[in-house]
Fold this protein.
Amino acid sequence: MSATTSPTPTRLQLMELLAAIGTAQWRDFAAAAAHHGLTPTQAKVLAQLDGPLPMRALATLLVCDASNVTGIIDRLEARSLVRREPDPSDRRVKNVVATDEGRDVVRRVREEMQATRGALDILDEDESATLHTLLARLRPGMEKSA
């Protein structure tokens, strides 16, 4: 190994970096959500709603009991950020759908994540592309094991 070559990081070192970045990003997300009167979990629900999603699927994503999701959705619905709809294939199932206002709020939350944006701004175009490629490769395995 030459003096300019750094040693290959261990899995533990990579995991610690991912955890630190994830924690910092979550803290930034939570602070931006608070500016809009949302808890981090409420904002996370809005961020997950690209389309209709069953209440039980939300519980799985949030790693919580389905009964907890009901209260979260009640509060978001009271603010007109989401609505409940019967599932077309099984009317016993309730899907949660973000309203236009809900999608706008989560868009603004993401735009206000200044610490995350600032950290990403230090990367040049090639570094951003490389990071995106690497994270996209990691994502399926990380989501599958959750």
The mean pLDDT is 92.
